[in-house]
Every structure is written in structure tokens, then in C-alpha cells.
Amino acid sequence: MKKSTRRHDLRRIRTQHTYSVQETADLLKVTKGTVREWLKNGLPKLEGGRPILIHGAYLKDWLAERQASRKKPCLPNEMFCLKCRLPRKSKPASARAIPRNEKTFNVTALCCQCDARMNRIAAKSKLEQTCRSFDIQTIPQPRLTESDIPTVNRDLEKECTK
Q: Global pTM?
């Protein structure tokens, strides 16, 4: 059985309202079978028989708890590997920092388990701490405005000298 990784919009659920299985499915844009599966997996329902009713507050709390249990926060020296689907440390000497703008930079590295590329955005105010955590060699991003020759087309340069 494949688990869904979809995040449902909990703001749509009214906490003082009761929902049938069909109403719950329509509200969250899932199938009735999904809602019945949730009921088997612990979604609280109101006692009393048919039709099955689900209180909005119970539904909202159950979905929020389910979404929170899936989160895997990274430690300061870890990045999230999309291939492994887990926080991982980077391979030694594979991390690089590339400035994005005046306040942030992009940290790229290779996963220590699967060699996939991982990315993380960090603040320039925490540059020293991030460099120590990942053993980073900072690479400045070249900008055309800061260059002596503000053209990227080197062919033009050759034509001008002829």
C-alpha cells in the first residue's frame, strides 16, 4: 500500500461541523476509499452508527498530527537528501557555498549515502558557522557589473581587435 505524501489544506475544515465520508472526501479532494482507510487507521468518528460522521475538530487534529509526524528536521550539519528522503550529512570536501544575493547563499554538497546532490539555503550572517559545519570552500559568484570586461561574449572581443 502506497502512502500519500499530500498535504491537505486544514484551513478548509470547520471545527464545529460534522462531515460524512463523502463530504470529507469532497472537502479534502480525496476518494471515499481514502477516508475509509483513514478511519481504519485511527481517524476518530462519532459513535452512533450510520451514516458515519466525523467531527471537524477531530479530523483537523488527526490530519495535523499525521502531517507533523512525517517531518524530519535537519541538524545544523545536515541537508535533506531528496533521493534518500532523509536528513543526511554531506560527503567530506564536497560542500560548496555560492552567494545568491546580499543576504543568502546556496550550499550544495553530495549525499554521503547515495551521492545525490543536496541543496540548502543559508544566511550570510551565519556564514562562519555554516562553513565550519560543512567544511565549505566559499566560491564567489561572478557578476558582470563587477567584471573588468562586462561582456560574456568573447567572440565580440576578438572581432574588435582585428
A: 0.55
CB environment 114-136: b (16+ within 10 A), e (fewer): eeeebebebeeeeeeebbebbeb
* Each residue's pLDDT tens digit, 71-93: 778 888 888 888 888 888 888 88
At 110-122, the pLDDT tens digits run 988 898 988 888 8
CATH code of domain 79-143: 3.30.420
Per-domain residue ranges of the chain: 11-70, 79-143
Which helix (H) or strand (E) segment is 6 a member of?
none
Assign 124 a pLDDT band (cuts: 50, 70, 90). confident
Q: Which CATH class is domain 11-70?
A: mainly alpha
Same fold, 11-70 and 79-143: no
Specify burial of residue 149 (Cβ count, 10 A radius: 0-12, 13-18, 19+): exposed
| Phi, then psi, of 88 in degrees rounded to 5 | -135, 155
Maximum CA pair distance of the chain? 91
Measured at the CA of 92, the angle between CA 101 and CA 76, to 5 degrees, comes to 55
